[in-house]
Amino acid sequence: MALNEVDTSITMRGIKLDAPIFVVAKSAKMASSISSMIKGIPVVAASDKERTVYVNGTKAKLGLEKYKFVEVKDGIEAAKAIRISKKLLPFVYESETQRIKILVKQLQVAMFLTDSGNINALRKAPIYKME
Amino acid sequence: MVDKSKLTQSRKLEHISIILNKDTQYHKKTTLMECVSIVPKRGKIDKKDVDTSTLLHGREIAAPVFVSGMTGGQKETFEINKNIAIAVSKLGVPMGIGSQRAMLENKGLTYTYDVKKIAGDIFLIGNLGVSKLPKYDNSAIKEAVDSINADMLALHTNPGQESVEPEGDIDFRGAYDRVCEVSEALDKPVVLKEVGNGISKEVASKMKGKIYAIDVQGAGGTTWIGVETYRGNSSYGKAFWEWGIPTALSVLESISGFGSHVWSSGGIRSAEDIAKSIAIGAEMCGMAKPVLVSERKGGAIGAYNFLNGIIEDFRGEMAKLGFESIKELSSAKVMIGEPLAGLLRQRKVRFRRMETVVD
Question: B148: exposed, middle or buried (C-beta count within 10 Å: 0-12, 13-18, 19+)?
Fold first, then answer.
């Protein structure tokens, strides 16, 4: 496959996300503001128990109460989280917002190197677990 | 208009400079050869009773050791190839050359790969990138191999490197089919090789029956993702520094998927590594950076001294363990410790000659 053919997007409750990597903001106001700046990336407020998500500046309900979240430091860790479980979603804190494009790129490269053309394929990629 | 040939030449020099002057080794991952222990066949024997020679595609070579293809396509890189060729001609072992893309772009650079003209009838392995194959038809590829009288053609697959390389070719569509086509069309054996990230059982299985050999070039030595991260100052490349399948694991996975004719390279640094590689089933064992360093320091003599030393150490290793021949060593019983043993279980890779301990 070609790297630029690799599709990191995912659709949750009818809403298309550029990648299943979440940004956690301090407040709902910050979440709304950040999601307007970074298109296609879901942002959620840490303090919001209902886990309302903002995508492209708009509120959305993605049913996040079913999921567990894990903080990641790069796109490879994000790929691993996505691979390990359908119920596990990677996130970064808002302080890392500048890096989100890099993280998505790293996720794309990790998918390319594991011959995963999309997120569903990544979920079946072989994994090596070092003991 | 960009002169592709000049860009390629400049890239070659940058690669050499980075490998020699920067830290481009894996930091955490090892080859996992340290998990392999060879069960001695008999008590120590005399070195003079050890025969390290073997056959490679019907041709006798002095030891199952080769110099991995590294460079070419530029005046300075010709010096490197020439000196290594002189060294291997004295020792009777094969060598590879770096990607011949430069000579396909500019025929005037053919001389930088054409080392048989100087070193005589050495066993020479040509080299082309898998992602570049769609650009050239079979006759152009055949000409590239024949014009330097190469005995084999290595096709390197390097998606990790290309993903991080500033001018990377990130389109590997149709790569598998093209490799099979080239292998079918050429009258020389084809080897699929990685460049430091290793080959998995799944990829090896796909190639079974289609090509002559797999050169795993596993993780544990130089990381080309690291080399390109330096070159392009990549913002995302560093995260992939440790990406790859360790050499020992990749050899065993490839044998499981492909069968015989699997070559062990990537982080091979000692005679012990070579002995272990052969013991776990590798046909050949390749080295690159240590040879380059020796050549850059001492020219042909430097490369010769290094390679001769390694081959003699390998003979000593075989003598210490009581193996008289490569045939005996390749049938050795082996103990495999953790984490390699655990990874083999996870990956469902069986190794019949593994000694098991029963509680």
Answer: buried
Closest Cα in chain B to A126: B347
| Mean pLDDT value across residues B330-336 | 95
Instruction: Give Cβ neighbours of residue B136 (< 8 Å, ≥ 6 apart).
Output: B104, B128, B144
Residue B177, min C-alpha distance to chain A (Å): 12
**pTM for the full model?**
0.94
| Tokens linked to B131 | 């992602």
B343–A130: do the CB atoms touch at under 8 Å? yes
Give the C-alpha separation, B301 to A4, whole Å: 46
The Cα–Cα gap between B20 and B41 comes to 39
Residue in the structure block whose two tokens are 């959305």: A60
B242-296 pLDDT, tens digit per residue, is 999 999 999 999 999 999 999 999 999 999 999 999 999 999 999 999 999 999 9
The token duo for B283 is 């046909």
Strand partners, A68: A88
Cβ(A41)–Cβ(A91) below 8 Å: no
- DSSP E strands: which ranges in B130-283? 152-156, 190-193, 213-215, 262-265
CB contact, 8 Å: B339 with chain A? Answer: yes
Question: A23 pairs with which residues across the strands?
Answer: A43, A92
Given a contact cutoff of 8 angstroms between Cβ atoms, the answer to whether B52 and B310 are in contact is no
